[in-house]
């Protein structure tokens, strides 16, 4: 089974295509199956190529991080390999701040919600000066 060993790691960026490859040799030719440990392969974004040697997940998100196992099996036995996938993400808006127009003495709230992996730090500045 290629990759060799029992585990390997893969890092992908949010929004990209995740490609995981598992090549098995044997006689009779092994059948390859993919699973996500502790979860399900994403519906409508998962595709298999090269007779299931390649697992392809499009538009990956942080929720796609986890351990993916390829299992190669024929009538004489099986082999497996676990690929630990981490999806990193540049900061992105969950709720972007919006302009706020207030009258003198009126209260207002600015909301800023962002996410990413690693989790971004949020700083507030007024006219370029931290507040």
From TrEMBL:
Keyword Transcription: no
One annotated Gene Ontology cellular component of this protein: plasma membrane
Keyword Disulfide bond attached: yes
PROSITE patterns the record matches: IG_LIKE (PS50835)
Native species: Pterocles burchelli
Name the UniProt record assigns to this protein: NRCAM protein
Primary subcellular site in the record, as a coarse category: membrane
Protein localization: Cell membrane
Pfam hit, one: I-set
Domain of life according to the entry: Eukaryota
Keywords, alphabetical: Cell membrane, Disulfide bond, Glycoprotein, Immunoglobulin domain, Membrane, Repeat, Signal
Ig-like domain sequence ranges: 3-88, 91-131
């Amino acid at each position: 089974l290629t990759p060799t060993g029992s585990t390997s790691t893969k890092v992908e960026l949010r929004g990209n295509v995740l490609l995981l490859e598992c090549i098995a040799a044997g006689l009779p030719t092994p059948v390859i199956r993919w699973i996500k440990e502790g979860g399900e392969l994403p519906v409508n974004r998962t595709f298999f190529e090269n007779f299931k040697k390649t697992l392809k997940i499009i538009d990956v998100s942080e929720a796609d991080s986890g351990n993916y196992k390829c299992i190669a099996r024929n009538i004489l036995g099986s082999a497996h390999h676990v690929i630990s996938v981490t999806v990193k993400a540049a900061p992105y808006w969950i709720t972007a701040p919006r302009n706020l127009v207030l009258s003198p003495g009126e209260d207002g709230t600015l909301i800023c919600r962002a996410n990413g992996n690693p989790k971004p730090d949020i700083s507030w500045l007024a006219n370029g000066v931290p507040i």
